[in-house]
């Protein structure tokens, strides 16, 4: 399975989540590619990946950063394999604004997976949230691939 982890980070929290996701995927035997939005010398072709994990932080009372919006526009279409994760802070805007960029992007892409929302840094008990989120996506993609292979062989 080819996996891209594309993320944009300001304080380092979203980058830390991306690296934690990468480690968990490595645990499953995958070698995901990390791509820092706004810093890459190339633009990845998303159709080459089975899953694209898109990471963002939320700022300015629920906004998605301009760099992430530019990335979405540069993609130019809505892939159906996008899983969204991100960091936010409930102290700015309360629960209704917490990780609102994650909610907006997951809705925009009609993601088959619930967005992963992390309060600031993914340390402590939030590490379990990251692992469970990754495990759920890996399992659902494996099942989907198995079903497709059964259909392909005519069973």
TrEMBL record:
Required cofactor(s): FMN
InterPro entries in the cross-refs: Flavodoxin, Flavodoxin/NO_synth, Flavoprotein-like_sf
A Pfam family: Flavodoxin_1
Annotated keywords: Electron transport, Flavoprotein, FMN, Transport
Keyword Iron on entry: no
Domain of life: Bacteria
Function: Low-potential electron donor to a number of redox enzymes.
Similarity annotation: Belongs to the flavodoxin family.
This protein's name: Flavodoxin
Species per Swiss-Prot/TrEMBL record: Oceanobacillus indicireducens
């Amino acid at each position: 399975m080819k996996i891209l982890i594309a993320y944009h980070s300001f304080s380092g929290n979203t980058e830390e989540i991306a690296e934690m996701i990468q480690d968990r995927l490595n645990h499953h035997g995958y070698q995901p590619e990390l791509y820092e939005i706004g810093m890459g010398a190339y633009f990845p072709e998303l159709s080459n990946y089975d899953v694209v994990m898109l990471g963002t932080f939320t700022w300015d009372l629920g906004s998605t950063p301009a760099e992430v919006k530019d990335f979405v526009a540069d993609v130019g279409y809505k892939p159906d394999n996008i899983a969204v994760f991100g960091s936010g802070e409930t102290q700015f805007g309360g629960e209704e604004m917490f990780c609102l960029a994650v909610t907006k992007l997951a809705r925009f892409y009609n993601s088959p997976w619930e967005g992963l929302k992390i309060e600031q840094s993914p340390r402590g008990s939030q590490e379990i949230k990251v692992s469970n989120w990754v495990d759920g996506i890996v399992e659902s993609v494996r099942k989907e691939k198995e079903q497709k292979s059964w259909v392909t062989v005519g069973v």
